[in-house]
Amino acid sequence: MGKLATIDVALDEMLVNLAAIVLRLSKPELTRTPEARNALAQSVHQYAVCAARSTDPRVHELKSQLEETLKPNLRIASIDGVKVS
Fold first, then answer.
1. Crossing angle for the helix pair 34-51 and 2-25, nearest 10 degrees?
2. I need a surface site. Which of 5, 18, 58, 67 has the fewest CB within 10 A?
């Protein structure tokens, strides 16, 4: 079982490093086009699939952070000075 644990730890480290890369690429200035947003969504989804089997809390925290990048930024709108968000 020692080899499996070593592989598991190595995979967790790879997932942490991958999440850092995807987080850097998720910046709004890099994901302005629909194609870029779609690529980000696919990357986040694939990360979530891989992270599902991990027991490392860092991997799950990063998964949550990545999923947050997919949520649209909300804006407050007003009509004639009255908020209508």
1. 160
2. 5
